[in-house]
Amino acid sequence: MRMSEVLRQLRQEQQVTGARPRLLDRFASFLPVTDATPRISLGEGFTPLIHARTLGRVIGCPLLHLKVEGQNPTGSFKDRGMVLAVAKAMEEGSRAIVCASTGNTAASAAAYGAHAGMDVVVVLPRGQVAAGKLLQAQAAGARVIAVNGGFDVAFRAVRQLVEEADSAHPVTLVNSVNPFRLEGQKTAAFELCEDLAGAPDYLAIPVGNAGNITAYWQGFTEYRAAGLVETAPAMLGLQAEGAAPLVLGHPVDEPQTVATAIRIGSPASGDRALRARDESGGRIDTVSDDEILDAYRDLARYEGIFCEPASAASVAGVRKLAAEGAIDPGATIVCVLTGHGLKDPDTARREAAAAPMEADATSAGLRRALGW
Length: 372
Ligand code: F0G
What we know:
Number of helices: 15
Bound molecules: ligand F0G
Number of strands: 10
Low-confidence stretches: none
């Protein structure tokens, strides 16, 4: 199908509205959308904000809330930004998108690119991408390229590819340096302000390239400037130990990379994350793998929320800061859970799954297995 035909069809579909609003429509007045922007949607956004009563009690923060971004169409927060980045790429007549990724950006780009009828190229650090994320990109028909090295090496190569692109291979970069990505991602801050009927006191969020913390801060400040909320939260950015420490601000050449956490050697939006910290009176801190995995298991067991390990850095950080007395226990806290637990079945099997019991297929057999 020709691109103009795809655009025409999408504009027609704009007239047909389902019960669930489209993110690009719902927040259009805060987004760089025009009449010419195709309002594509895979059902992104409008994710639940859940009051985690049990886990909140356990860690001493009774007003702990969770923004469950794993419930986006491809199972991560990336979809909020990707829907806009891809819509704008279509509007500008682009035919292909490319990204480097530890997996979630790739899965999201592959899905929205497929939906838009575009070519998708994703460049991944070999051997470092969780099984679910890789399969998502492959299933959606993206061209997947594995390279030796970590995310930073892959990102450098992709950036250069885009800079050197000629008219024979025009391509749009959809990493979070694409400004439309962060514009879309800021909508999560709008949603949680609406759910709480105000801004929380703290917003805790995992930090990789620092795009998402930048996007949330932009969202909070825009809602405050528009008079929709009176306050903005203190931003708590949690990095995995082994990433380039933003507190020091210098890049790490070869960040240690395991599936547990997102470790970026040179965070693309590092400066803006530091500004968010300073303007909000927040902090950037680190959490260890063990702290992340404890939070990951507890989220599933106490609250029934299975997130991917990297996401649990937000809860691990709040637990650590609360134990240090650095957080007011009466505060309203929102932890962002950035991705779904099914993304990474290997870590789940290793860290969170008890082996099934064996039993004969009879009630007596079940009773014996259960010790009843
Ligand atoms: N949480 C998850 C589950 C992620 O996949 C990422 C980033 C982050 C947090 C950090 O967000 O980079 O905006 O600070 N994943 C990127 C990717 C690197 O390629 O999917 P950030």
